Amino acid sequence: MSTWQKQLGMSLLLAFGFALTLLMITFIAFPLENWTDLWNKRILDMPYILLVVVLSVTTGVLTGGGLAFQSQKKIHYVEHQLDEIHKGNPVAYDGEDYRELITIEEKMKQIEDKFNKQAETAQRLATERAKEREESLQEVVLKERNRLARELHDSVSQQLFAASMLMSAVNENEDAQKDNELKQQLSMIENMIHQSQLEMRALLLHLRPVALKGKSLSEGSKELLDELTQKVPMKVDWKLEPLNLDKGIEDHLFRILQEAISNTLRHAKADKLEVMLIQRDENVILRVIDDGVGFEAEDAKASSYGLQNMKERAVEIGGSLKLVSLEGEGTRLEVKVPLLSKGGNGDD
């Protein structure tokens, strides 16, 4: 039975009780000699019995309607508070206006505290796992980086250097100086070798681990986007506020950003990419927007490994991931993480 059905039944009971009370008072105060007097006696130009019915129904409807309105108002209040708790927003309790809901409010406060503690625990565990992974892999990654850099330097770089020296010697040969066409070709080859040397130096310079190491999330993200603009023919705009976050949150958000950019490059066919990292209302917000081909949210791609991995990373740090995409209209990804143990220093 719905709330309105219950209130309607209460209204009918109130009307019946009010009518019975008026009739009893009438019988006691004015004993009737004939029951027809209830119909013959007129008040306000209507039979008395009809007046009793009208007053009773009106009183029942008004009283029941008022009770129903108050009941619905309380239900909406509780629904709103629970919705705010579900969204992770701070809840303001108004116990003065709803004193009868104080017990329910206490339960909601306990639920809110429990969710906050769970989010804090998830963030702390993520931080601990990130530190453990970094400590366990740091030495291996460093050795592998050094090995690759050393091999590239000792093999490819040395060969390019030798080729450059050889081409310089050939260009200085008298026969080469006399033949203009040969001289141009040799000069072109020398320039190509020189350009390859520059690119190899840049590669050795950029040879580093993927994870954030010694950098904040904003610094690592800026470096990633700077490198993206140099390698990809795409317009990249960003707004990165300097934030002071736990290591676990930084690591997860950075990997979500990497995955989002990877998805954009592989699938979106976009001409423009926008990245925003800000703090608003005790929440860190990471937003990635592209103007690519997009896809239907219910499509198979929406449940791909990459997107699922990003969602799981967001949940691990007590946050949420929202994805909006339509075919031909691009994709908008937003991660929202509440700051419970350490706040950032971004401007509002």
Adjacency order of strands in the biggest sheet: 3-4-5-7-6
CATH fold category name of the largest domain: Heat Shock Protein 90
Examine the secondary-structure arrangement and name the CATH architecture of the largest domain.
2-Layer Sandwich
Number of domains: 3
- What distance separates the N and C termini? 48 Å
Arithmetic mean of pLDDT: 76
Order of helices and strands: HHEEHHHHHEHEEHEE
Helix content: 55-70%
What is the 3D form?
Answer: elongated
How many β-strand stretches? 7
Compute the gyration radius: what is it? 38 Å
Structural class comes to: alpha+beta
What's the oligomerization state? Answer: single chain
Low-confidence stretches: 342-348
Biggest β-sheet, characterized? Answer: 5 strands, mixed
The number of helical elements comes to 9
Percent of residues in beta strands: 5-15%
Keywords:
Heat Shock Protein 90, five-stranded mixed sheet, 7 strands, 64% helix
Write the layout of secondary structure elements.
Layout: H1 3-29, H2 37-40, E1 42-43, E2 46-47, H3 48-87, H4 102-171, H5 174-178, H6 180-206, H7 217-231, E3 235-240, H8 247-268, E4 272-280, E5 283-290, H9 305-316, E6 320-325, E7 331-338
Parallel strand pairs: 3-4
Antiparallel strand pairs: 1-2, 4-5, 5-7, 6-7
Helix pairs in contact: 1-3, 3-4, 4-6, 4-8, 7-8, 8-9
Summarize it.
The protein has 348 residues and is α+β, with helices and mostly antiparallel strands. The chain has helices spanning 3-29, 37-40, 48-87, 102-171, 174-178, 180-206, 217-231, 247-268, 305-316, and strands at residues 42-43, 46-47, 235-240, 272-280, 283-290, 320-325, 331-338.
